[in-house]
Amino acid sequence: MTNKHAGNYAGGNIFASHLVDSMLRVDALKKRYSSVTALDSVSFALPQATYAVVVGASGSGKSTLLRALAGLIEIDGGEIWLGERNLTPLSPHQRPVSTVFQSYALFPHMSVANNIAFGLEQQHRSAKEIRERTDEMLTLLRLNDLAQASPPRLSGGQQQRVALARALAVKPEIVLLDEPLGALDPALRHAVRHDLKRIQQESGVTFVHVTHDREEAWVLADHLLVMEQGSLIGNGTLANLHAEPHNLLTASYLGLDNAIPDGEEWIVFAPEHVVLKRDSGRWNGRIVGVHQLGAVTEREIALNDGTRIRQRSIDNDWDVDDRVWLDVLEIRRVTS
Ligand code: ADP
Ligand code: MG
Question: Rounded to 5 degrees, what are φ and ψ at 282?
Fold first, then answer.
């Protein structure tokens, strides 16, 4: 199995040696909690070394999906396969899967190095292997200077990296991350995103990352999974979903925030693709709101039929109550 990303870390190959063919296939996964259908026959496949991001509103089933993949809940139907291996009957510790929670769940009384070594100790690896693997993880996560530090003294971003190092130390084939950046302040969240992407690419491991932040999804995702009320309603690479967004909700997660009804369909497009004109265009309306977002101006426009449209650009030529025509540089059509 070759992989264009795996193994370019420090000239060595710290993961790819154990990665056999590991396409993740989830088939008709079902989970009910009394009256709630948390997973409604969810199916998808992810090639090895994919960064998958799961988005959806609160309560849409994202965490339930991760728990099912980890084996932490009993499912009511469906199967989970990794390459030729059926993971469905396996207990959590038998699955080649590690989970990183938002809370990190580090052991406060253990050093960073001992936290990272914990899973390897549990697996009764040799002292030499534990030492070597811990050192590799300290280097991969750029934590060498903090090896003997105590987790409560670390910043949120550092703790997040320790949690990830601990998850990766046991050489999982899948890493599950449930809102892993949720506890960080916005500036740090941006920096740590790039660490996550780098580490996923260098390790060649598949990451399945849950977030409700669509910008996080844009930066990280090779593959996007959109959940709504237990159903997977968007499933594809970012490029494929951009070409064909399936439905309004998936379009909105891609930044296509505007939707105009057109017969049986909706025309969807991004605020950045709207061009305002004085004399003619495809739609006519009136500016009803202007908001300065740093260098960019966002305007809200009411079309003549009442549909609200958002437009963003860096010019300053328009005011509230101006009549405008709109052209759109790029549109997509969806049916629901
Ligand atoms: P998300 O992570 O997208 O916010 P969850 O997967 O946590 O959503 O929840 C999906 C649905 O399942 C919600 O309606 C939630 O209330 C319900 N649910 C999740 N866990 C339990 C549980 N342990 N008992 C009962 N209902 C649950
Ligand atoms: Mg959740």
Answer: -80, -40
